[in-house]
């Protein structure tokens, strides 16, 4: 394609560049090897020509003067910002030697592979770690508190993850006859207009609103969708589980739930022993339940064998009755135990949340909750989409359980226009090859036993392939149960973005024998590396992308000096570390990933993208009915009981509360009134800026212009009480640390909460400590602790701390 010597390359945005998890189709205009323009691809099914500011600013990004374009070796002390250029060969030799030395002396698990959010390096960092022999790939956020906990929670009680349906699996999208428009969508702790996370495109919701979809928004801050919603539930951060329980209370007690789904597809009818509080694994009552509440259980066959009732009697039995009451069960050894149904136990839990109590916990008006619950339950179909604040609380699993119960009990799961089960297109998994699954797995299952957190936490054993971050950080200091000596950092801003308590991370990095980092720019974090390798943007590489739909390729459009794609860097090192490494070329690796689609990399590249046909098991709707979810091919869900588990058998096995419930997070005015006296404001952080991706892009002129300063949003009443004017600098502080931000006085936040931007540092300031690009001045993560992960190792208190604000006098600094 192209004219006047301009090549137009059709490709897919994914890391690095705009960041984000979306997969927008773009047209890159290349002249003489330079990017002169970039635009959205109007034919692409994903974004249909639309594009964000960060993608449009790629012309200022690719050849930016700050880009690292050659491998660098640190010459001064860590944090002094002194480097020398070396060749790729020298750099790779040095890394190989240093990492092999650690492997020999301490074992391969002593090197941690640190990554950040969902980019295409997910598989490649696993490939490298596993080839080296380490199971310790660490998603470097406390409690792995982004996305992973949601996925693992959904696997726990539902067997699969799901997202709202915008017809993304259907080539004709909204016009496809199979698609139904969601009548209502709950946008729950989600700012999708700015964020496009989880492989969903923000404008899809707007597309559907234009067609008539109504919005309920759960958010403490007046977001884009809150301002356009039918009901805005302005919730106190960290109380989402209580709100969901309140909504369930309305829906169950007003009989607005889907009896058919409850009966057929949940484990509500399973029996729970009153003496131990545990579920009898195999026995459940359904329409064949005995009316006189007496069951004999054969332990071998797992079936109820003798009924104290006749066939005719149970046929008249009303399901509601069968789901309630006490039941005597005689076990095979003759013991008689009294049981109740899981549904009864579940309802008892839900009934602990009457709306006046929920109002007190959440600060949302009880009437609004009732109206929102009724609207959602009476809309057919209806969908819910949650965002990262749901992961960012220690009780993430019970919270997800409560919210997911809403879509299950209203029969909105796995149906058009509801919450659809998200599967990789054509079952080709390019992100992120978990543990032993996929083309690049662990070399030896046994090595996984040394992964940090595997022994302690059920979800890490069962669903995650990650090292538990908080435990890893501690282990760097204690050396127990084994020493940690090296780190490979690829996409993790430990001192400027993903790392909470960044000063602790700094001390940890100082302790390590060897650190290699791969990045596109110098950052506060990379100043602690011994070797720094230059990575490519998405425009400079080939790649495969399948994160739900479509399956698509990333196509190389240009080259920048000596920068290399992450996949090539990791591939080269993986071959050096593992004499049995399976692949000879990167393309072979791509082909292997694409195998389930029946296409090779070249074939897919020619097509651009592909959406699985309707009859493909990776295409949505009614999959639980068709037997497409369970390995045995039977209808139902991929859980231990084959049902959507209202009562979680995994959680029971892990010694955790099997029912959904609210737990007050550790640092709130309710849990810590002592701290709240000194730090009376709720500190929320990290609402996304459309101009930035986390700690990136502060050096891109167009983007910095859009959002020039680290901003804290303060309600006018609160600002007035502190004598703070709009645009004035303030200190935010709490018992952990402080940072300086610019006040934006605005009624979009409640008077009792401030919202601070995250990911800040100043690329224009000095690299060397104590400045470290001004990161200690403005990084709000200095006010957020590590080590407060939830009971199952997941989730962390990130969006609900406490703080106070003080007007800055312009003199103090925060260095050191
Ligand atoms: N432009 C841009 N896009 C991004 C990113 C970026 O940095 N920049 N980051 C990407 C990443 S890794 C992620 S995880 C996603 C996150 O994207 P989202 O999931 O949308 O997350 P946030 O923007 O952090 O928060 C969403 C909304 O939740 C509200 N909120 C805060 N605390 C609570 C709470 O306790 N309960 C409820 N109900 N609401 C709350 C906030 O006010 C905000 O409006 O975005 C991705 N997309
Ligand atoms: N206070 C607070 N902190 C938060 C959050 C919050 O809401 N509040 N959100 C958290 C969340 S959800 C997440 S996921 C994390 C994200 O945190 P990170 O994933 O660490 O995000 P970034 O700062 O965007 O990226 C880190 C580094 O990776 C580099 N990089 C980007 N793309 C590539 C690539 O393709 N290859 C290579 N080699 N390098 C690349 C960037 O230049 C940058 O220096 O932040 C978390 N931090
Ligand atoms: Mo994230």
UniProtKB/TrEMBL annotation:
Matching InterPro entries? Asp_de-COase-like_dom_sf, MopB_CT_Acetylene-hydratase, MoPterin_dinucl-bd_dom, Mopterin_OxRdtase, Mopterin_OxRdtase_4Fe-4S_dom, Mopterin_OxRdtase_prok_CS, Prok_Mopterin_Oxidored
Gene3D superfamilies referenced in this protein's UniProt entry, alphabetically = 2.40.40.20, 3.40.50.740, ADC-like domains, Dimethylsulfoxide Reductase, domain 2
This protein is called Putative molybdopterin oxidoreductase, associated with bss3-genes
Q: Which family does it belong to?
A: Belongs to the prokaryotic molybdopterin-containing oxidoreductase family.
Quote the SUPFAM superfamilies the UniProt record gives.
ADC-like (SSF50692), Formate dehydrogenase/DMSO reductase, domains 1-3 (SSF53706)
User: What organism is listed for this UniProt entry?
Assistant: Desulfobacula toluolica (strain DSM 7467 / Tol2)
Read off the PROSITE patterns from this record: 4FE4S_MOW_BIS_MGD (PS51669), MOLYBDOPTERIN_PROK_2 (PS00490), MOLYBDOPTERIN_PROK_3 (PS00932)
- Renumbered to this chain, region (Disordered) spans 612-638
As cofactor, the record names: Mo-bis(molybdopterin guanine dinucleotide)
Basic and acidic residues composition-biased segments: 626-635
**Entry GO MF terms:** acetylene hydratase activity; iron-sulfur cluster binding; metal ion binding; molybdopterin cofactor binding; oxidoreductase activity
Residue intervals of the 4Fe-4S Mo/W bis-MGD-type domain: 10-66
Q: Which CDD domains match?
A: MopB_CT_Acetylene-hydratase
**Pfam families named in the record:** Molybdop_Fe4S4, Molybdopterin, Molydop_binding
Name the UniProt key words of this record, in alphabetical order. Iron, Iron-sulfur, Metal-binding, Molybdenum, Oxidoreductase
